[in-house]
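Colleagues,

For the teaching module next term, I've prepared a clean inverse folding example: a structure given as tokens, and then the sequence designed for it. I'd like students to try predicting residues themselves before seeing the answer, so please don't circulate the second half yet.
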């Protein structure tokens, strides 16, 4: 295949229209020549980054030219799979030296925002893993920047493009269960830790650049044994977002998309609180939203994770099914919809026998690649994913203040009834890691 490098101007000319109606599921008509290939780099090479790279490079329209990873072993493993790529430890050097059109940011949560903002401001098209950011402020600023720059963006919520997700949204919109009055959603994962931080300092492995791994976070000693790297950073307040941040963007995506909820009236945590270092294990958060065209006058959303689950009377609504490890139950005025995570929805109760609206899915990664080269539309751009992330992060924030109903002003990005909570809306970046746009 002949590679035709796409300039920022030509990509935006071809693809900007794709943001006009990003949430309508439809066939993506190609408008760019099929020989056009976007040149791509990855911030991250191991873990979820490796999965993202595999999915992105399965498109014939994307060519991987470089990766950056703070772990030299992970970078070397990616080099074995793609011998022609350049390898860096510092993504900033990669951005400065490489010629590319698009980037995926697949790092620990605390390092999503800065490379994504740098890419947007540089005119690149961006695929960023969920949650979009670690703080509400960062999510808002990325959403605004992507809109301003007409960036072709996508968040890594793969089920958003699946048949299952699209069918949930379409079935709610069909009115099959009437107006939705409550939703219960859960994940059995337990990305939390009730233990204190170990009081020790371990040698940094020779393959790991600890300073670059910390990035925007304050300097601190390395703790080995997997405490931070490669995966348990999700449990740590300064680096991850716990189970809610990890799985909420997936499981609450169809809730958010189908109901059209926005600014919650209140958010209250009735589960575990974080300790000084780590997110809580077993969380339960109650949201109350103003009504929309698909809900009653108000709609309640309750999130559970760890060992928390919906109460017995709610679980009884989906009998003979038992409550699975992850999923949602939508309670409407005219019936119930049970939606297991990555499973087709089922209508129950008064809605038994009604039709589930089946909508064919597509490949979330290829969809974005096509949009980035001007041949389609991304359905989870930051215009959608930013507000979804804000909702999830509000839930995370609420766990710091158990049994307190927080009131949120979306326009001002401010908790209006509990000033102490506002310190967690935005974080302070370590000196040298400040980024224009934040």
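(Answer key — instructors only)
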């Amino acid at each position: 295949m002949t590679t035709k490098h796409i300039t920022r101007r030509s990509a935006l000319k071809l693809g900007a229209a794709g943001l006009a109606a990003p949430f309508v599921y439809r066939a993506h008509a190609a408008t760019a020549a099929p020989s056009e290939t976007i040149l791509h780099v990855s911030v991250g090479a191991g873990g979820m980054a490796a999965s993202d790279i595999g999915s992105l490079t399965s498109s014939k329209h994307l060519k991987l030219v470089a990766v950056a990873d703070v772990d030299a072993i992970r970078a070397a493993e990616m080099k074995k799979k793609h011998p022609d790529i350049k390898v860096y430890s510092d993504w900033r050097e990669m951005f400065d030296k490489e010629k590319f059109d698009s980037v995926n940011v697949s790092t620990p949560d605390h390092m999503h925002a800065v490379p994504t903002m740098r890419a947007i401001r540089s005119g690149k098209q961006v695929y960023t893993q969920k949650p979009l950011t670690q703080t509400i402020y960062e999510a808002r600023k990325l959403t605004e920047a992507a809109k301003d720059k007409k960036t072709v963006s996508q968040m890594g919520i793969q089920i958003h493009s699946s048949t299952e997700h699209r069918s949930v949204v379409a079935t709610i919109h069909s009115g099959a269960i009437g107006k939705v009055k409550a939703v219960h959603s859960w994940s059995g994962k337990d990305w939390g830790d009730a233990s204190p931080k170990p009081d020790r300092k371990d040698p940094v492995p020779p393959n790991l650049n600890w300073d670059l791994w910390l990035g925007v976070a304050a300097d601190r000693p390395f703790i080995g044994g997997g405490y931070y790297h490669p995966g348990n950073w999700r449990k740590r307040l300064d680096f991850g977002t716990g189970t809610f941040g990890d799985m909420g963007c997936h499981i609450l995506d169809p809730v958010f998309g189908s109901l059209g909820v926005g600014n919650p009236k209140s958010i209250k945590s009735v589960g575990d609180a974080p300790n000084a270092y780590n997110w809580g294990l077993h969380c339960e958060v109650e949201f109350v939203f103003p009504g929309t065209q698909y809900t009653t006058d108000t709609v309640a959303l309750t999130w559970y994770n760890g060992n928390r689950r919906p109460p017995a009377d709610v679980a009884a609504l989906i009998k003979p099914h038992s409550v699975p490890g992850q999923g949602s139950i939508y309670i409407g005025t005219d019936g119930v919809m049970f939606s297991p995570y990555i499973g087709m929805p089922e209508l129950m109760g008064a809605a038994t026998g009604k039709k589930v609206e089946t909508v064919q899915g597509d490949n979330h990664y290829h969809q974005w690649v096509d949009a980035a080269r001007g041949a389609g539309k991304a359905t989870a751009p930051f215009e959608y994913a930013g507000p979804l992330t804000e909702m999830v992060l509000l839930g995370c924030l609420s766990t710091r203040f158990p049994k307190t109903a927080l009131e949120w002003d979306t326009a001002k990005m401010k908790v209006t009834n509990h000033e102490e909570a506002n310190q967690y809306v935005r974080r302070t970046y370590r000196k040298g890691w400040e980024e224009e746009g934040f």
